[in-house]
Every structure is written in C-alpha cells, then in structure tokens.
Amino acid sequence: MKNNKTPIVLRPAVLGLFLLAALFICALAFRAAEQVESESPAVSVDMARLQESRAYYEGRVTPAPAVRMGQVALPPLPEVPEGLYTQPKPLSLPDVAEDLPPAISASVLPPAKRMAWRENAAKVVPEARGSVAKVAIIIDDMGMDRRRTQVALTLPAPVTFAWLPYAPKIQGLVDEGRAAGHEMLVHMPMEPDSLTIDPGPSALRSTMTSTELTAMLDKNFSAFEGYVGFNNHMGSKLTRNPVAMITVMQEARQRGLLFVDSRTAPDSVAADTAAALGLPHAARDVFLDHYEDRASVVEALAALEEVAHRKGYAIAIGHPKDNTMNALREWLPTLADKGLQLVPVSALVRAYEPAAGALAQVNNQDQTTQSIDYDFVGPLRPPVSGPAPY
Fold this sequence. Notes:
The chain has helices at 11-39, 41-57, 116-119, 146-152, 171-179, 210-221, 242-254, 270-276, 294-311, 322-331; strands at 88-94, 133-142, 160-163, 183-190, 229-234, 258-261, 281-283, 286-287, 313-318, 340-342, 369-375. By secondary structure, it is α/β, with parallel strands linked by helices. The chain has a domain at 114-353: TIM Barrel, CATH 3.20.20.370. Strands 2, 3, 4, 5, 6, 7, 8, 9 and 10 form a nine-stranded parallel sheet that branches.
C-alpha cells in the first residue's frame, strides 16, 4: 500500500534514533565548551575583571551616596600637647593564636637582604625656593583598565602608582612609568568587611594561616619588579587583625619594603604594626575620589592642600578615573605657587628602628594580651573623612 506514513512498528525506532542523535550533538557541544574553558580560565577571569574595572571607572557601579560628607558640623579638634608626638603608645595583641609568628622581636628579626624601598625610590628634585610642604599622590588600581592606566602614566612626575598584582602583563607599563620618574607600589589585595565586594583572586584573608598568608604575599610580590613597597587594596577587615598584620609586616621587612596604610578602616592597626616592627611606613590623609564627580575631587584637593600646610606634608589616594585625572592635570602645575612640592611617597615615610627588646613576646601563660611599645615619632593622623570605600 502506497502512503507517506511510517509503519506503526517502526515509529519508536525512528524516535529513538532521533533522540540519540540529539543527545550526541549536545554532548559534543558541551565537551567543546568545557575544553575551551579549561584551556583559558585566566583569559576568562581577566576579561571579566577588565569589564568590571571599566564599569567602575565609568561610574556605572558606584551608587550615589545617601548623605554627602560635610553636612554634619563637627566640633573643632582639641589642641594636641607637644609631648604627645613622642609618648610611647601600646599596641595590644591577642595572646593565644596558633598562627602567631614564633618571634616578633625586632632585635631577633634578621636584617633585610636589600633595601628595595631605597633602591627603587624615585628621585626627589630639590624645591626651587624656601621650605615648602610636601604632597604625595598615590593612584591605586593600576593595571586593569589599560587605557586609563596609560593616561595616568602621562601625569607629571613623580606620582606614585599602586598596581594590582593580578592585572595581566603590567611589567612593561611599570618600566615605562619608572623611566618617566614615577614611583611604584604593589596594591596588595586584602579582605574587606563587605561580603559583596570582591578584593581579587589573590587577596589576603583573615582565615589564612601565617604560612598561607606568606605564600600569597610571595605570589603578589612576585607579580612585577621595581616597586618600593605596598599599600592595601580594600582590607577594612584584615587591617584590623593584628596577628595577620604581624605576618604581613614581617614578610615585608625581610624584603626591605615600605608600607602605606590606605586607611580603609578608621581603627586599622596596619601602620602601628609596621612601626612596631621597624618597617618604613606612612598613612593616607585624603581620598581624592571617594565621591566621583569633578567638584568633589577638586574639593578633596583643596583639603589635601590644607593638611599639607598644617602638617608639613600630606598623602592622597585616588584612582585612574577620568574626573580624577583631569583634575590632577590642572592642579599639579599650580603647586609651586601654593608653596607645595610633589614628591614620591618614599620621601614621606617614617623610617626608624624600634628600641631593642621593645617587641619581646610575652610568654607568661597568665597574661591575656601581649603589649608592644614603641616610640611613635610621626605627626598625629587626621580623622578619616567620610565613610570608608571598602
């Protein structure tokens, strides 16, 4: 009988063959996608972070602040007694911790093999006239947004650039910046308080042991060459952890590095720990672009001038954002007329060794804390202005 219908007995076989063919094709497609992903995971991560970086610098992921700083009137700060600058200040550390380094005495720490912070420091040009206040500008988050990174490198030297260690292929850009007279830092990723902000794939975290922290530090410090030290990327949680900070600063001391506390947490112990371990250190005074509009950046630069004239120096941190770069390009040529001089951050660190035995570890089991005493000879830090960004 002639018709176009498939015999009933053959219909299940045809349907089964069709399903098997479909499953085979899907398996091949899945296998191909899995192979591509396994062959280039780093490329996928780099592209994702590049897209995230671009969105950040274009202002597409930064919510408008609910309350602008400056709306709340604060009482004036009391006058600081002159003797406060040289009074010993205690730093209390937990007594019981499995990860506590076995020796935290500066007298027994081996000396650094080389003083990288001096060897790689950018040159400071003597001021043209009289005694002027010094300002250092640190540009964080360098390396991920390539276009804005290259724009930042064209700023008048010496600007200090902090490079994310997981940014791809940055050694050539670092060398270019150093040749132009700029100074370099490692922008060390550290754990923030926020659970929704990603500090990066190589972040230092409070859950790590001292061995794990040291291994991650080595990875980040090996990302490129030619830097004088490091500052923290995020880190509002980790920089409040004194045990972790001891491990971090000990490793940095062995490498002959300096440290700049970005002050993403008002109660950070990072700079104090660096001081206690004899690490050259400094702390951020002003954030330039916590609020990204141009008016806020200009306002922050004015605040930086005030701090510099009051203290004799000041350190600002910004990012390679369009408004920040444009404001700095107009502001930097005006410094000489304002009695200010741009210097690399290495020119502003406090560099001294603690007194012998000042960091002796407390072994008495009855003690609940360890006390580290040192002479803090630097100026009083101003309060953190506005909410910390991380």
